[in-house]
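Reply to dn_fold:

You asked what the input looked like. This is it:
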Amino acid sequence: MAKSIAQPANDQLNKIVENTKIVGDIDSQTNMRVDGRIKGTLKVKGKLVLGVNGFVEGEIHCENAEIEGTINGNIQVSGLLSLKSTSKIQGDITSQKLSMEAGALHNGKTSMGAPSIAKPISSTTQNG
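and this is what came back:
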């Protein structure tokens, strides 16, 4: 007798195909692939893949990301952020790990590692 095993939600995939434009916030409980355009905050519980023609104007929060397209906004990744050679990011990056191919463009600040490492260093001095 074979048991039916339920697949975790992160094995599912939401897709926004080319020529689709969405204005508004998206909160996905599964992996997501974006080949269209989004203007708003994008929260993905799982992996985000932004295709070559994908475009996001707004904040992105996800567990892992593979970026081939364009982002105008900040991106926060709790795991691995992989920037492919065609990626273009105008905004700040916060990620545990970062992989960047030659040709990838990024204009903004980058913070990596554990959150305690990413904290700014105090510029106060002590006399004594």
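Residues 1-10, 116-128 have pLDDT under 50 and may be disordered.
Hope that clears it up.
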